[in-house]
Predict the structure.
Amino acid sequence: MKYQPVIGLEVHVQLKTNTKIFCGCSTQFGASPNSQTCPVCLGLPGALPVLNRKVVEFAIKAGLATNCQIAPRSVFARKNYFYPDLPKGYQISQYELPICEHGHLDIAGDWGTKTIGITRIHMEEDAGKLVHSDIPGLGSGSGVDLNRACTPLLEIVSEPDIRTADEAVAYLKKLHQIVVYLGICDGNMEEGSFRCDANVSVMPVGADRFGTRTETKNVNSFRFVKQAIEYEIERQIEVIEDGGKIVQETRLFDPNSGETRSMRGKEDAHDYRYFPDPDLVPLVISNDWVDEVQLSLPELPEAKMQRYQAELGLPPYDAEVLTASLPLAEYYETCLAAGAQAKVAANWVMGEVTRGLNDAGLEIAACPVAPEQLVALLQLIEKGTISGKIAKTVFDEMWQHGGEPAKIVKEKGLVQVSDTGEIEKIIDEIMAANMGQVEEYRGGKEKVFGFFVGQVMRASKGKANPAVVNELLLSKLKG
Ligand code: ADP
Ligand code: MG
Ligand code: ZN
């Protein structure tokens, strides 16, 4: 029997606000345990939550950028469960009336373009964190750090429209790109700012009802999501083929083995005893506010990609690569602002810069060559001071040791030789030493031309101006 996988993703996006969702405590990462807490986020009885307006604004932004309808009225609800990192015994979330609904995103890939529905986006608070280790002054054991409690999250829930692990990754990348472009999330997956629960089921091809799903929690890299989903699809098919049944459960992904394992039986919504939080009034959002937020949206990836093609004349491939991440696009745009030619800068950013970053395992933000320095280098090529080839040597030097390109060129004596007399002298010597090849060329074997160019460039240590070399060689070889 053939099986059809069905996948739906729940993504938790940690919002980049300065303070928490229901109190004024800082959201700064990495402070000493429980130093960023107050009665509200500690969950002390009687402390009252006050909604952070910025969180609502960010949620509206996310909704608009994912084609959702923004609810004029939405409601916070208590999701009740027990865990030591949740002192209140409930999480404030949204349930029946979330802030955004009925959205969608298009994903492109081998499958063409496909629309993935977004069921809802809701706001909620994060829980604290258990720390299992040596606790200063207490010895080994477990402690609770409530710095993260009350950190604002968006939960973005997709429809079960996804059919393969690759589609799931494409959807996640798109969503990640959007929240980073919007400036509402730092996108740091390792620190958990963007994490995903993958719901996976399989059904016989042609079945009219989905199979039972499992939910694999908190997968925090694109690669892991792909692995976890592929593993889960295979596992479920095997269970069914062996005559077993899939149980609805929560599973954990183990990055070391690439496998998922059972964590606990999955609760149903009614287990949480959701009810509207009496401490928070319903959230009313005016059309004016939505319009205002709409106007404040930055240029999104899709629009940027179109603009790079229409205004800068870049090929679609370049436009896509350069806009894939906002920091890369910003680096590129800084080059343009500093006076670079669009296509030349595109080639360098996608070529040398990206290669250097990949080799060094660096993010663009940590690029050792600043955009202004790169442009200064490109201008040396444009003026004919150095050749494109020498520029790569200079670039490597800038990458390794820093410094201004003009200074490096001068210090290392890399200025391009365009003086015809000097180049002619080299050509004469090389022709004299290779009369055999000269005869071949004159006998019609034009391929030998490349050999001569190579020899001349080598003899000039790469400094001869290639255009001048070509021109002079041509006339001399013709005889
Ligand atoms: P819960 O909080 O119980 O996980 P949600 O409604 O928040 O429920 O999320 C359900 C997620 O599971 C959605 O992304 C949805 O698309 C997905 N889903 C629902 N049914 C299936 C199914 N049979 N197979 C795969 N995914 C599913
Ligand atoms: Mg869930
Ligand atoms: Zn607080």
Residues 20, 23, 25, 37-38, 40-41, 150 surround zinc ion (ligand 3) (CB under 6 Å). DSSP finds 16 helices and 16 strands in the chain.
